[in-house]
């Protein structure tokens, strides 16, 4: 894929790198299409347990490519809608990927880049990262990324940063709960790898089920139906081959079979 670099360091792990360092990994239609395809294919791999998403060069992602924006300036309404729908579909492909995604954030993370960070399951950011939802400066709004950013950043913080288009630091993103780990730049890869290994060591079906569980129960009322649904889910996984093997390994104080 011309705009991405996809590596498979082990059978259970994958690395997806935005690979347009000359434009700080800015989005265009090719990047969007290739990310959609890549996460669709990786999510369908039954052996895969963790995906790392990062950017080559000096920045994670600086938002929209300037040349792409120039082209969009001449689009009619329907062309704009189709273009935005492709971005919305790409973000959903990452968000709904059954394999957990660890975001490796460095340098600038602006506009659509913040949206791409928001759809990751775990975010590790270097301490010198600057985030910015810059759309309002251009007379635009972060519409397609909005649902994911509001979920990850929180409603009140999103209210501020959507309308002010201010920059905010990795430390502030960490304080707000958007970033899980705020790390010295030289320790970024070590921390990302530690999280990858933690994920790989867990039951692979359980990790996927945990990711889906959070998405399914977030902000839902704790109703009779939800209580029954969660009871069915734990019964399903307890009686599964992986669940049975994991319980036996715990009781026998032996390594679970997925570590062999």
Protein architecture, described:
The protein is α/β, with parallel strands linked by helices and 260 residues long. 49% of the residues lie in helices and 16% in strands. It folds into two domains: 4-199, 2-enoyl-CoA Hydratase, Chain A, domain 1 (Alpha-Beta Complex), CATH 3.90.226.10; 203-259, Lyase 2-enoyl-coa Hydratase, Chain  A, domain 2. The chain has helices spanning 29-43, 66-72, 77-95, 112-118, 146-153, 155-164, 170-175, 188-201, 204-217, 224-238, 241-252, and strands spanning 4-10, 13-18, 50-55, 101-105, 108-110, 122-126, 130-132, 167-169, 181-183. The strands form two sheets. The protein has a six-stranded mixed β-sheet with strand order 1-2-3-4-6-9, with helices on both faces. It has a three-stranded mixed β-sheet with strand order 5-7-8. Helix 1 links the parallel strand 2 and strand 3. Helix 5 crosses helix 6. The longest helix is centred in the N-terminal third of the chain and has 19 residues, at 77-95. The chain starts with a strand and ends in an 8-residue tail after the last helix.
Count of domain modules: 2
CATH class of the largest domain: Alpha Beta
Strand order, main sheet: write it out: 1-2-3-4-6-9
- Contiguous helical run count: 11
- What is the CA-CA span between the terminal residues? 33 Å
> Could you tell me the mean pLDDT?
95
Task: Catalogue the unreliable spans.
Answer: none
Order of helices and strands: EEHEHHEEHEEHHEHEHHHH
How large is the share of residues in beta strands? 15-25%
Helicity, as a percent range: 40-55%
Instruction: Please give the number of β-strands.
Output: 9
Report the CATH topology name of the largest domain: 2-enoyl-CoA Hydratase, Chain A, domain 1
- Overall geometry comes to globular
